[in-house]
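Sequence only, no structure available. Ideas?
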Amino acid sequence: MRTEIVILSSILLVIAGCKQPEAEKTEGLITVDVTANYPKKELILQDFMDVEYIPLETSDEFICQGIVLAVGKKMIVIRNGSGDGDLFIYDRNGKGLKKINRKGNSGEEYVYNYDVMLDEQNEEIFVNDNSKKKILVYNLQGNFKRSLGHIDNVRYNQIDNFNKDYFVWWNSSFEFNPDATETSSFFITSKQDGAIYKEIKIPFSQRKSTVSISHDEKTNMTYSISPSYRSTIPFRDQMILVEPSSDTVYCYQPDYSMVPFMARIPSVQSMNPEVFLLPGVITDHYHFMEIYKKEYDFATQTGAPANYLMYDKEANAIFEYAVYNGDYKEKRHASMTGYFGKMVDKDVASCRKMDADVLVESYEKGELTGKLEEIAAKLDEEDNPVIMLVKHKK
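Reply:
I predicted one. Tokens follow.
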């Protein structure tokens, strides 16, 4: 499947960020045809973004798998993928500050710590535990402060900072349960008591799930596959809101206003199987996105094809893109979609982990250059991962 962007003849693209100048507010938006063809374009990541590498300190206490939950101006929050309950706080130089584990069944503990928000300004960590239908709030030393109960008939997902007093989250109830009670797509919630401040209603005619599900009657096992994507994407001081059931991606702004950011054709409501438009990293120059087709054969474990698009604001056109990391001597892809951490520091667009053993192997093969080569030269293959921050150019 190939695709291109269609620009309505009478409109201009939103300039850097989502917010349009006063004179352009009534004009249109980008419209992406998810069924069309488009040309290819290659980019070097360092040509349009700044890249920083942070080797995480390795010690007896700080041994981690490097899954980034949040990046603040002063610290980074990391977890493991094993469900062991560990949370690691590092400073922005990679020095271990605190290891927290409050896994358990008491009222002050969490069962799962997969969805975590860092509130650096208030020096708190929020752990969203859907199994308990609570958000557990801790200080940066891991001491329990309070819990925020979930409201009924929703599933809290991807909780993210909105401002000093509120956080925003996506209601993912319908991803695995098409019969869930109909309610709003996004909510803005008080950090202090969990009260709903605003419901954000995204227009669509019928809920569409990105998840493909299969049930094996012989084994009584249920299998599923879905794309990895962010539903709340911070960009500068604004928030991109992605509701898969809608034909429009919106930009939510600090004053609580919402403007269309990107639209797609044909309507997702008209497609079977559905094809979803899922934005990724948003930069001043480029808007990256994934086109995901909900089509998977569980018997052969094939399908779920995806195409990767990039809107080039300067060229006023869309391309099938390949972005390469310039710190490799040969072409090495840099991912610009999927799940890429929560950015408390608005200067950071995305982050990825780079495993030490892989970097050591690349270094020994002479594949690296620049800052990455310098860091890899000092690594042991048993060290913690290196965190790669992709930052907006100043």
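Residues 356-364 form the longest helix (9 residues).
Hope that gets you unstuck.
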